[in-house]
Amino acid sequence: MGEGFMATSFEKVVGLARKNSIWPLPFATSCCGIEFMATAASHYDIARFGSERMSFSPRQCDLLMVMGTISKKMGPILRQVYLQMAEPRWVMAVGACASSGGVFDTYSVLQGIDQVIPVDVYVPGCPPRPEAIIDGVLKIQELVHNESLRRRQSDQYKELLGSYGIQ
């Protein structure tokens, strides 16, 4: 029961605490935002998953939920919001527009937010039903719970951020 036991147990405790206290920042621009409002309302109640505290300050949240169409002019703003978040931070692309540009294959619409920031979970749909958004939150919780405390300092993670031009 040496050093390995304590580190493993500590990681599991931290993962459990993070998993059940995710503070989302809703970045909603269109119809997916309305579906998210239904998800946060009493019928679906996102509070069951420890995510009821919506934060509209990037410095106080750890999950960026991008919902709706993101124009190319809005891309740098989205990136700035992402960079203002403290580590560890996660990103969920909700709906077809945030994931791939949706039906708007035009010069002015970003064809997926993964062109400007890394995405952890994609939620499909146009717009996705509240059940799909809850499934996305559960996937984020699983990712958060199983993430190593050392992952954010790994060369692989730094390389990923470097590919987005983030230091």
From TrEMBL:
SUPFAM superfamilies the UniProt entry points to: HydA/Nqo6-like (SSF56770)
Cofactor(s) needed by this chain: [4Fe-4S] cluster
GO molecular function annotations of the record: NADH dehydrogenase (quinone) (non-electrogenic) activity
Residues that, per the record, bind [4Fe-4S] cluster: 31-32, 97, 126
Compartment(s) of residence: Cell membrane
Reactions this protein catalyses: a quinone + NADH + 5 H(+)(in) = a quinol + NAD(+) + 4 H(+)(out)
Cofactor note text: Binds 1 [4Fe-4S] cluster.
Membrane topology: Peripheral membrane protein
Protein name: NADH-quinone oxidoreductase subunit B
Organism in which the protein naturally occurs: Ferruginibacter yonginensis
Taxonomic path: Bacteria, Pseudomonadati, Bacteroidota, Chitinophagia, Chitinophagales
Gene: nuoB
